[in-house]
Write a structure and sequence with these properties.
Number of helices: 13
Shape: globular
Radius of gyration: 22 Å
Length: 410
């Protein structure tokens, strides 16, 4: 399966992109948690065991699992020129203010012979004590002497195991995103190179690019049908980005998408993306967090009458009515996380009870810790595949956040 084919949230998942948590989690510290968007420090050994259990559940259900680090390594193995371009770009975007380190870091990273070792190191981060003074002739400076060899020069990227966000698969194309937080902006460099140079993906059409000025993240984008998307207007996705994405999709000759449902959700840390409060789990069922109900702004975007324009209609009907219309159904059911109990819903939504990954109609992967919500899903007749989550959940993302579908059956 080459390229991208994702026209649904529920059709059988055949190929998915993951990233196994790496040593980047070991470079989280209490002082950097807020900057790096974590609330706690996961225990890497257990996080990897939990992630391996997740990937095994997918494989057991016929899903081909590919890893971000492997695809990027295959890109770099193609030519020394691509490796050179990548390293120069990576260093330029790493936020290294002291220019004396630019060539030193280049020499250090380029000295790693294995492409996979190089890729993992760019994800992990670089400490000053790895850039040995004897090898690189670094002159002492006041900042080096004060902060010592334990100073981190290139920050880690601990959010990478949430592969849903740096880009999104839409039909047969992709959007490569401009991320909301500066600490996550570098994550999209891997997708940029994969979709430019990897033989399996370089022909995929781009509907959005990481150099665009407006923020959008993949957790806000849901494929409803071949013709329709739902996109959250959220803490991390701006209306301007949605409008620009819509224009790019509508003018594409290869895109079948002609409708975008834009849903304005509360802009809070707990509700960072649409998929943290709403996911489709069956042909006619959605899992939702009851905290999004109440006055809700919903807009339907379609092609405008003039080329390059869009028409935007505010919709006042309940969300389930709009979804039923877009899906071509008589009705849809919104199943409330935590059964609608406020305390349970808030607790289980915080632990991603609403962030389900549907791998076939009515078959969902969930965190086992959300026992109330999982029991409700079973009561509705769904097949619930539970995975352990004591450490993975510390990053505030669930099974959908940790996976980027590359191919679903037509």
């Amino acid at each position: 399966m080459k390229g991208i084919h994702v026209t649904s949230e529920i059709k059988p998942l055949k190929k998915v992109l993951l990233h196994r948590p790496g040593r980047e989690l070991l470079n989280l510290t209490p002082n950097t948690l807020e900057e790096l968007l974590f609330d706690d420090i996961p225990y890497l050994k257990v996080a990897d065991e939990e992630h391996d259990a997740f990937s095994q559940v997918l494989r057991d259900h016929g899903v081909e699992v590919v890893y971000l680090e492997d695809l990027m390594s295959q890109v770099l193995d193609q030519s020394s020129d691509i490796r050179e371009y990548f390293l120069r770009q990576f260093i330029a975007e790493a936020g290294i203010r002291a220019t004396k380190y630019h060539e030193i870091i280049y020499d250090f990273l380029n000295g790693l012979q294995s492409s996979k070792e190089l890729v993992l190191k760019t994800m992990e981060g670089v400490y000053l004590n790895e850039l040995t003074r004897e090898r690189h002739h670094v002159e002492n400076s006041l900042v080096d002497l004060v902060r010592g060899d334990s100073r981190i020069v290139v920050n880690p990227m601990p959010n990478l195991y949430f592969t849903r966000d740096p880009f999104e698969s839409m039909g047969t194309g992709v959007g490569i995103n401009r991320m909301f937080s500066p600490t996550r902006c570098r994550e999209t460099i891997y997708a940029d190179y994969i979709f430019k140079y990897h033989p399996d993906f370089r022909e995929v059409e781009h509907y959005y690019d990481r150099v665009n000025p407006f923020h959008i993240e993949g957790g806000d984008v849901l494929n409803l049908t071949e013709h329709a998307l739902a996109i959250g207007i959220s803490q991390r996705t701006e209306p301007d980005a949605i409008e620009r994405l819509a224009k790019n999709i509508f003018k594409s000759k290869n895109a079948a998408i002609d409708t975008i449902v834009a849903i304005h959700i509360p802009e809070t840390r707990a509700f960072m993306h649409l998929d943290t409060v709403l996911t489709q789990i069956d042909v006619d069922k959605f899992m939702v967090h009851p905290g999004i109900f109440g006055p809700m702004e919903v807009f339907v975007i379609t092609p405008g009458t003039a080329p390059g324009t869009v028409a935007i209609a505010r919709r006042n009907e309940p969300l389930e009515v709009i979804f039923a219309e877009v899906l071509g159904l008589d009705r849809v059911t919104l199943i409330k996380c935590g059964g609608g109990d406020r305390i349970t819903a808030e607790r289980e939504q915080w632990n991603d009870g609403s962030n389900t990954l549907c791998i076939a109609p009515g078959v969902v992967v969930v965190y086992e810790r959300n026992d109330v919500t999982n029991a409700i899903l079973r009561d509705y007749g769904l097949t619930v595949l539970e995975i352990p989550s004591s450490e993975l959940s510390r990053g505030r993302g669930g099974p959908r956040c940790m996976s980027m579908p590359l191919w679903r059956e037509a």
